[in-house]
Amino acid sequence: MLMLGFAGFLGLLKIVLMALAAFGLVDAVFRREDAFRAADKQNKMFWLIILAIALVVSYLFSILSILPIAGLVASIVYIVDVRPAVKQASGGGGGWRGRRGGSSSDGPYGPYNGGR
User: Fold this and answer.
1) pTM of the full predicted structure?
2) How far apart are CA 25 and CA 48, in angstroms?
3) Alpha-carbon distance 82 to 40, whole Å?
4) 3-state DSSP: the chain helix, strand, coil percent, rounded to 5?
5) Which residues does 74 contact at the CB level (< 8 Å), separation at least 6?
6) Is it the case that residue 21 has pLDDT exceeding 90?
7) Which of 27, 31, 92, 105 is 20 to 30 A off residue 84, Cα-Cα?
8) At 16, is the secondary structure helix, strand, or coil?
9) How far is CA 92 from the centre of its chain?
10) Cα 10 to Cα 2: distance, rounded to the nearest angstrom
11) In this predicted structure, what is the pLDDT of residue 97?
């Protein structure tokens, strides 16, 4: 019974490792090549290869092996360090929180008119 629970936990952990690597890989695919150079990180192809290897390794090998742990480290480095730098170098990335036009003097409730 205990081994069945442990195997289930390792299965969930394996899914989390694959999800992190897949998220990093998909994010890297949609980032611009020049943003990687502007952020002074490795080039885009390097990160695509590293994250693809991390995804394949986390799928093929047991979580108790050293290779999925190395893939986890690579995924975390991309998500925590490279992704924010590349996102800022490419102009913020937009998304659902991006600016929707307007002036630099716009406040949260509309344009600021200086108390007039």
Assistant:
1) 0.72
2) 6
3) 9
4) 70, 5, 30
5) 21, 50, 51, 53, 54
6) yes
7) 105
8) helix
9) 14
10) 12
11) 47
Non-local (6+) Cβ contacts of 97 within 8 A are none
In one-letter notation, the amino acid at residue 76 is I
- Reported residue count of the chain is 116
CA distances from 47 to 21, 50, 52, 101, 102 (A): 11, 5, 8, 33, 36
Asked whether 63 and 50 are in contact (CB, 8 A), the reply is: no
Q: How far apart are CA 22 and CA 26, in angstroms?
A: 6
Residues 6+ apart with CB under 8 A from 75: 17, 20, 21, 23, 24, 51, 54
Q: Each residue of 54-84: pLDDT tens digit?
A: 999 999 988 888 999 999 999 999 999 999 9
Under a CB-based contact definition with an 8 Å cutoff, are residues 32 and 94 in contact? Answer: no
